[in-house]
Structure prediction request, 138 residues.
Amino acid sequence: MESWSQEFSEMMQILVEGVEQLVTDVTQQMDKAIDSFIDTSEEIAQQVQNTFELEIEPYLNEFFDPILEAYLGFEIVVEETTQPFTRTVEPMLNDHAACVGCRNYHGQAYNGVMLVCGMHPSGWEEEKCPDWQSTWKE
Prediction:
């Protein structure tokens, strides 16, 4: 009876070693396959990037550059067009009546300090500013 249990134990040991070897071999093969896949995917990504930079990007630039230039030009035109209105309304809202309609009015706050204009950073206190220039084009 002891020989049967010893044979069974040896057989189980051989089976465990075989399964262990199988798992080790499969793991090594998977590592090789994954490394190969990573190398291939890096090469493909590099080729896609090179193709995009050399062939597709110039066409996209040709398409989007005029649109971007038109948009930026439109933004400048809108700002120039609305400037007389903002220069007329903003000084009244900021309590600088002498600056209403003045081309030099800035009206922006920096670190909590209002810069009214370049000539008079705190604004002009009297009714008529000596440096006042009309915002409206003549």
Q: What stands out?
A: Residues 108 and 115 are 6 Å apart (CA to CA). The chain has a mean pLDDT of 82. The chain has one domain: 2-117.
